[in-house]
C-alpha cells in the first residue's frame, strides 16, 4: 500500500528558485526580520518584488508614491509603517534615483547605505528586494551582483 504524500510548505525565498520569488507565499515564509525594498523614481507601476510587495500591502507603496511621501529619488531612506500586514517585519524603502541614469557602481553604494540604515535601526536579519526596470533586465542583475559584493552573505537578495 502506497503512503499518502504530504505536501510541504513553500520553501523560504532565500532558497526558492535561487533567491527568486515564485509566489506570494515565498514572501510570507521569508525568515528575515526586516525587508529593504529598492526602487527607482521613474519606474511606475512598481514591478518585480516591489510590485508584489505593494500588492501584498494593498497598494500602500503606490499610494505613498502618489502622495509624495515616497519619491524613489537617490539616497531616499524611509521606514514605512505596514499596519501589521508584514507581521512584525519592518519595511525600509530605498530610492535609487532615475533609472536611465543607472550605473552598475550605484548598486553597491545603495546596498551599503541600506545595510547601515537598517543596522542603525537595530535590524540584524533582513532581506534586500531588488529593483526591476522594464526592458533592461541587466539593471536587476547588476544590482544583485553589486549588492552581493558588499552585503553580508546572510542577507538574501530577492528578485521576481
Keywords:
disordered N terminus; alpha/beta; 5-stranded mixed beta sheet; 160 residues; 33% helix; single chain
Tell me what you see in this structure.
The chain is 33% helix and 14% strand. The N and C termini lie far apart (41 Å). With 160 residues, the protein is an alpha/beta fold. The protein has five helices and five strands, in the order H-E-H-H-E-E-H-E-H-E. It has a five-stranded mixed beta sheet. The chain has helices spanning 24-29, 48-56, 60-67, 105-120, 137-150, and strands at residues 34-39, 77-80, 90-95, 126-129, 157-158. 35% of the residues are buried.
Percentage of residues assigned to helices: 25-40%
User: Structural class of the helices, strands and pairings?
Assistant: alpha/beta
Number of DSSP strand runs: 5
Strand order of the main beta sheet, please?
Answer: 2-3-1-4-5
Query: How large is the count of helical segments?
Result: 5
Amino acid at each position: 500500500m502506497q503512503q499518502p504524500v504530504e505536501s510541504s510548505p513553500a520553501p523560504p525565498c532565500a532558497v526558492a528558485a535561487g533567491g527568486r520569488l515564485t509566489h506570494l507565499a515565498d514572501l510570507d515564509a521569508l525568515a528575515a526580520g526586516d525587508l529593504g525594498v529598492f526602487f527607482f523614481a521613474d519606474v511606475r507601476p512598481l514591478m518585480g518584488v516591489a510590485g508584489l510587495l505593494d500588492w501584498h500591502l494593498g497598494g500602500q507603496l503606490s499610494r505613498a508614491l502618489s502622495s509624495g511621501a515616497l519619491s524613489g529619488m537617490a539616497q531616499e531612506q524611509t521606514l514605512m509603517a505596514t499596519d501589521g500586514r508584514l507581521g512584525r517585519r519592518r519595511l525600509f524603502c530605498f530610492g535609487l534615483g532615475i533609472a536611465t541614469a543607472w550605473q552598475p557602481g550605484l548598486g553597491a553604494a545603495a546596498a551599503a547605505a541600506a545595510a547601515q540604515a537598517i543596522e542603525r535601526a537595530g535590524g540584524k536579519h533582513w532581506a534586500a528586494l531588488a529593483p526591476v526596470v522594464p526592458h533592461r533586465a541587466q539593471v536587476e542583475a547588476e544590482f544583485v551582483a553589486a549588492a552581493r559584493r558588499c552585503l553580508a552573505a546572510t542577507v538574501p537578495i530577492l528578485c521576481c
